[in-house]
Amino acid sequence: MKDVYITKIAKFLPNNPIDNDKMEEKLGVIAGKASKARRIVLRNNRIKQRYYAIDDKGNVTHNNAQLTAAAVEELCDDDFSKEDIELLSCGTSSPDQILPSHTAMVHGFLKNGNLEINSPSGACCSGMNALKYGYMSVKTGQVNNAVCAGSERTSSWMRSDVFENEVAHLKTLEENPILGFNKEFLRWMLSDGAGAMLLENEPKGENALKIEWMEGYSYAFEMETCMYAGGEKLEDGNLKAWSEYPAEVWGEKALFAMKQDTRLLGDNILVKGVDSLKHACAKNNINPNDVDYYLPHISSYYFRERLYEELKLQGIEMPWEKWFLNLENVGNVGAASIYLMLEELKGSGKLKKGDKILLHVPESARFAYTYAYLTVC
Predict the structure, then answer these.
(1) Which CATH number fits domain 5-211: 3.40.47.10, 3.40.50.1220, 3.20.20.480, 3.40.50.150?
(2) 212-220+262-376 placed in CATH 3.40.47.10
(3) What is the pTM of this model?
(4) What does the pLDDT look like over 38-51, one tens digit per residue?
């Protein structure tokens, strides 16, 4: 088995940052009324700015595959060209289409010759699963290098026109229709961007990060769906797929909008997350004393204090001085968030040889968690 190192990390954030006051202007007003939920959600998530692939005139500037390709190209220089990539593995929860796969579309924009591609599906963990596929491929010697990416282009899923048919339909049933909070919640939570990592079997460059191990856990066997798109959640907790509805109903129910069962989220995301972290640490014989930087992907600062308390409650307290977050300034970019955090930490000048970094990525879709443990070389 080969050792595997993250030798470069890059990001691409589209256009200028958008502050809280301009979000609704970018995404659009639903049914001519300003959102009442927006201030509540923003007050809790405490995100100050984010990025959208939308210009000042409301036009889309990049699709998801273009964002990802741009991040990948940022990895390239005179020493490593895009033609040198042996494996391309990209994860996202907001692909531009059902088929072809997301990574196939990224490869189409890169136009860099024949190579292996991999497209893990899912939500936030898809970026980590993309990384794990690259990690295993380099470790087993199948390839000498791999480029892995996480990205989101959720703004187009959250624009007002996605919901207008549903609101119009509701008006035929009630005088003052209100879009369900489970749909509007995510409008004020998610943003666009991409991150990419170059994995190699040698520790090239400054502050190369050796991947010591990666672990993943799913609680779908006992938990019902929490975040979803392309279906409707039924009273029994099951999902009814978009393909089982008549086409004329797709707009009436905004079936392709992302939705969140906030009750399930608050009750379970942290409990299951810490439980899985304990399993990962026990399996690999580490504890908080073996961590210098803790990078948890949290969707909202609402969960920051609560995660700390849950860690403490379950006997794996992570001191505040070990935490590193950048949610406030880049927003919740789903599958790309952990890439953006690690890119910022690596470029901060804080890291020194021997430092240990723990990546902790939850996914609320049906409660999955992925971890990576890194050493600075």
Answers:
(1) 3.40.47.10
(2) yes
(3) 0.94
(4) 888 999 999 999 99
